From TrEMBL:
Record has Oxidoreductase as a keyword: yes
Oxidoreductase listed as a keyword: yes
Designated name of the protein: WW domain-containing oxidoreductase
InterPro entries: NAD(P)-bd_dom_sf (IPR036291), SDR_fam (IPR002347)
A GO term for molecular function: oxidoreductase activity
Keywords: Oxidoreductase
Pfam families: adh_short (PF00106)
Amino acid sequence: MSQERKVIVLTGSNSGLGCEALKQLLRHSTPYHLILAVRNITEMEKIISNLTIPSQHSIEISKLDLTSFTSVKSFAQGLLTRDPIIPLNLLILNAATVKFELSKTEDNLETTFQTNHLSYFLLINLLLDRIKWSSEQQESFNSRIIFVNSSLHKPGEGHNKIGPKLEIENLDGSKEYDGMLFYKNSKLAQMLLFYQLNKLLEEEKDEKKKISIFAIEPGFIPQTELGRESPFYVKLFMKFILPFAPFTRTPEQGGEVIVYAATSAELENRSALYINKLCQIDKSSDDSYKEDLQKLWWNISCELTGLEEKKLS
């Protein structure tokens, strides 16, 4: 791998927004080494075989299962123990899921919340020092972390207008379970992590280790694999009818928002911005700005991921 290439870790690149972001990144003249972190390596290899990869870029595929903390740790360890050391210039957290029936991961946590929030919380904390180091090595470009979020983290969004409703006593879904509500909860938790992480980075006041973090809202894109476990009639509706609705967007348009946040020179030396589907700076939900909630859910996330040493006093 050429040392001149910026190293990008991209999750969920085997379908939907992630696949479109990958295709668009490959059209850039800036040389990239793309580490595609996916659950199904065979499927990703088939997709890569049908892509044209310009000579300035290189690609590798790595196993990452966000329903498993063991897999997250293994993926991070694989990156951090390479010889020679590789930088991590861009971390794009794209993969997500929604479950319509309650299910648990091998870590005995509700699947949607772990996949969309807790595993990313763990991954960021494991890789953060390397991301800081990478920014220090390449002073002309801040390292970036991109959170692919959703407008559904805001109250009153979506077809049922319910939630989000983060409750410590119902994180496992035992009290009551609504798949879309847990999806919204995971996205609000991610936004709380987003702002708290930025505060911690700002406190370091080290310009040589500057990291920019952005959260994006790609819009409603029915062609993604997000609803792959939904009922059959819902899948048909999302595949053949919803794409023609005026309020929906295409995977290509969603991919453009990801790539804008990851690469735009307009965003250099800026951070903690919420970027909407039109690539405009926007406001996230009122709850996401509440510092007490940010600290609370940071500490809860530390407990659930085994990162007790990262808890805030």
